[in-house]
Amino acid sequence: MITKRIIPCLDVRDGTVVKGVNFKDLKNVDSPVRLAEYYSGAGADELVFYDITASAEGRGLFTDILTETARCVFIPLTVGGGINTLDDFDRVLKCGADKVSVNSGAIRDPSLIPAAARLYGDQCVVLSVDVKRVNGVFTVFAKGGRENTGMEAIEWVKRCVGGGAGEVVVNSIDTDGAKSGFDIELCRAVCDAVNVPVIASGGAGCAADFIELFKAEPRIDAGLAASVFHFGQVEINALKREMKENGIEARI
Amino acid sequence: MIAVVNYGVGNLFSLCSSLRAVGADVTVTGDPDVIRAAERIVLPGVGAFEDAARKLSASGLEAPVREAAEEGKPLLGICLGMQLLFERSLEYGEHKGLGLIPGTVAPLAGRIPDTLKIPHMGWNALRLHGNAPIFKYIRDGEYVYFVHSYAAVGCGEYVIADTEYGEYLTAAVRRGSVYGCQFHPEKSGAAGLSILKAFTEL
Predict the structure, then answer these.
(1) What is the mean pLDDT of residues A2-17?
(2) How many other C-beta atoms lie within 10 A of the C-beta of residue B102?
(3) Residue-by-residue DSSP string for B74-92
(4) Considering Cα of A181, then A185, then A188, then A194, what sign does the dihedral take?
(5) How many Å apart are CA A22 and CA B61, to the nearest integer?
(6) Are strands A222-225 and B2-5 parallel, antiparallel or unpaired?
(7) Distance from CA of A109 to the nearest CA of B (A)
(8) Taking CB atoms and an 8 Å limit, are A70 and B13 in contact across chains?
(9) Predicted ipTM beyond 0.90
(10) Three-state DSSP class for A56?
(11) Which residues of B touch A3 (CB under 8 A)?
């Protein structure tokens, strides 16, 4: 049976990996290429590269880093950040990305996901959505979590999946950086709404948070995190052994 | 030299990088003569069957691929490239494949329980059948990476590995020197590289 995936996310800025706590206070960690190689060897099932400042400042992705990574890392690679046009898809796919995640770009241009899905296939198009509760309503935020779009999140996810997004990364701004566990309530609401793979993001503080996620909501396909992996609080292969001990399918 | 058949579908970057990582001399080519001169051939592919079959035929590369198979040269079809090896596909209608391996490519929808998501995407374990040389460096139960919504049926005796997703799905086939992998060895970490390494040694 298919395994639950563990996905380290490398937030890239100026050629280095950074992790924002609630998307602020960025902290340099290491070279993206070195980290990607390390994670591939350490049991990561997939890697995500996010150019986190691209949508705010309109900068392009660091395609040299991507190319270099794809040359030496042989697990699926998803790229996001600053994906606004089909040309952006083309550019990162040529550099070795397997999937492309769209966030603010899809909000700005709702025809982007359907057009990309037609051209590259649903499996290539990932919707990434930043969600925060506003007066108790799951609300979509754009531009790295800085701008309230006023859109209800679950409807937005349904619309994007209907348009061809083959996977959804659900990032909870409410739990991001707090290290007190994933936003299971939000994940459940998304799993109720769509039947494509759903990746939980935001809030992992320890291995037990992943176990709790997969036990509480078995429809979740993957857990994504950054700093807990970068700073060694969670060692991926140890996490996967713990998953297996808890009856959760994992690749070791 | 390994020729990676470039007929205008999919991204060959990762595939070439992974073959080079196991020491292969790789040429991406749309030239029939280069394919004829190659020792081994990889037929990649992503996207829709009908479009890919048409492009392979229109590019003039179907003939050299067939000749290679007939001559007994090692040929590896990956993902949609594997599906093209079969007699036909039922993806959006019915379309003819190369017919190098008996079987039909059929949708997962309706075959697997409704609770399972389609595409079958992610890491799943291989159940090996027999001792195919291409799997000589991996063990039974090794995880590899899949992304597909269709899978081959009716290819029983040619199945060298399957994988469980609600039911057992064809994961790899072999007929003589012609191999097909439904999964992506170039995205399957160390296990995938071991499979590609074994292919370069056939």
Answers:
(1) 88
(2) 16
(3) -EEEETHHHHTTEEEE-TT
(4) negative
(5) 52
(6) unpaired
(7) 24
(8) yes
(9) yes
(10) helix
(11) 122-124, 143
Residues B104 and B90 sit within 8 Å (Cβ to Cβ):
yes
Mean pLDDT of A116-130: 92
Per the CB < 8 A criterion, the answer to whether A113 and A163 are in contact is yes
Q: Are the C-beta atoms of A79 and A88 separated by less than 8 Å?
A: no
pLDDT tens digits, one per residue of A61-100: 478 888 999 998 999 999 998 899 999 998 888 888 999 9
Structural contact between residues B105 and B97, judged by C-beta atoms closer than 8 angstroms: yes
DSSP tag of A75: S
For residue A64, with 0-12 CB atoms within 10 Å meaning exposed, 13-18 middle and 19 or more buried, which class applies? exposed
Domain ranges in chain B? 2-200
Angle at B188 between CA B183 and CA B190, to 5 degrees: 140
CA distances from B158 to B127, B164, B182 (A): 14, 17, 13
Pairing label, strands A198-201, A222-225: parallel
Q: Answer for the pair B138, B191: CB distance below 8 angstroms, yes or no.
A: yes
Task: Please list, in sequence order, all residues whose beta carbon lies within 8 angstroms of the beta carbon of residue A232, skipping any fewer than 6 positions away.
Answer: none
Set B16, B79, B155, B181: catalytic member: B79
Give B109-126 pLDDT, tens digit per residue: 999 999 999 999 999 999
To the nearest whole Å, the CA of B71 is away from the closest chain A CA by 31
pLDDT attached to residue A20: 40
| Beta strand pairing call for B75-78 and B40-43 | parallel
* Chain A contact set for B121 (CB, 8 A): 2, 123, 166-167, 197
What's the pTM? 0.93
| A24 — pLDDT class (breaks 50, 70, 90) | very low
Per-residue confidence (pLDDT) for residue A120, from 0 to 100: 87
CA distances B70 to A61, A99, A118, B66, B99, Å, are: 45, 36, 35, 6, 12
Q: What is the pLDDT of residues A162-213, one digit of tens each?
A: 999 999 999 999 999 889 999 999 999 999 999 999 999 999 999 999 999 9
The four Cα atoms A113, A118, A122, A124 give a dihedral, to 10 degrees, of: -80
DSSP state, B95? E
- What is the CATH topology of the domain spanning B2-200? Rossmann fold (3.40.50)
Structural domains of chain A sorted by starting position, each given as residue range(s) with its CATH number in brackets: 5-245 (3.20.20.70)
The phi and psi torsions of B10 (rounded to 5 degrees) equal 80, 175
